[in-house]
């Protein structure tokens, strides 16, 4: 892993979807542990929950508009079903989070799993494929300095 800069004075907002909480709770723990292990103070981490992944964009916007927040990490899980709902939600969330990042000129990290099955999501939230929450935290840290 590349040398990361000192983030001890940086503040992070985490927005977590309540939907598929068995997955998003694990992603959140991955983010939290990774931020702390890289020197972020617990009191510099603020988190909020939103009902589902679709609501991550508004949650991210509310978090990003705070002057004290340096980066926002959004965590969700959308699992493919029998309808096109999956496509609409994924597209809306990706676009929404991009817009928030550009509007506030802050890193807004897309930590949303988009899987075919619940098992695939679990495998990426602390299972055999690691915890994508870890990767989201590292991305947020890197984006604070890679400018």
How does this model look, in words?
This protein has 147 residues and is α/β, with parallel strands linked by helices. The chain has a single domain (12-142), classed as Rossmann fold. 46% of the residues lie in helices and 23% in strands. The protein contains five helices and six strands, in the order βαβαβαβαββα. It has helices at residues 21-37, 56-64, 85-104, 118-124, 132-145; strands at residues 12-17, 45-50, 71-79, 108-115, 125-127, 130-131. The strands form two sheets. A four-stranded parallel beta sheet has the order 2-1-3-4, sandwiched between helices. A two-stranded antiparallel sheet has the order 5-6. Helix 1 crosses helix 5 and helix 2 (56-64) runs parallel beside helix 3. The longest helix has 20 residues, at 85-104. It starts with 11 loop residues before the first strand and ends with a helix. The mean pLDDT is 92.
Which class do the helix and strand fractions yield?
alpha/beta
Query: Main sheet: which strands, in order across?
Result: 2-1-3-4
Given the structure, what is the number of helices?
5
Radius of gyration based on Cα positions: 14 Å
Find the count of extended strands (DSSP E, 2+ residues): 6
Quote the average pLDDT: 92
The CATH architecture would be: 3-Layer(aba) Sandwich
Instruction: Specify the oligomeric state.
Output: single chain
Terminal CA distance:
18 Å
Q: How many domain modules? A: 1
Helix content: 40-55%
Tell me the series of helices and strands, N- to C-terminal.
Answer: EHEHEHEHEEH
């Amino acid at each position: 892993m590349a040398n990361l800069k000192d983030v001890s004075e940086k503040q992070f907002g985490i927005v977590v979807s309540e939907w598929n909480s068995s997955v998003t709770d694990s992603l959140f723990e991955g983010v939290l542990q990774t931020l702390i292990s890289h020197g972020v103070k617990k009191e510099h981490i603020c988190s909020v929950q939103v009902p589902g992944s679709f609501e991550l964009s508004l949650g991210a916007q509310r978090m990003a508009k705070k002057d004290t927040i340096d980066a926002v990490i959004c965590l969700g899980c959308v699992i493919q079903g029998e309808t096109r709902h999956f496509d609409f939600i994924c597209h809306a969330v990706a676009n929404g989070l991009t817009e928030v990042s550009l509007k506030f000129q802050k890193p807004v990290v897309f930590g949303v799993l988009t899987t075919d099955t619940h098992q695939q999501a679990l495998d990426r939230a602390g299972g055999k494929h690691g915890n994508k929450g870890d990767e989201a935290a590292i991305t947020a840290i890197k984006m604070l300095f890679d400018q």
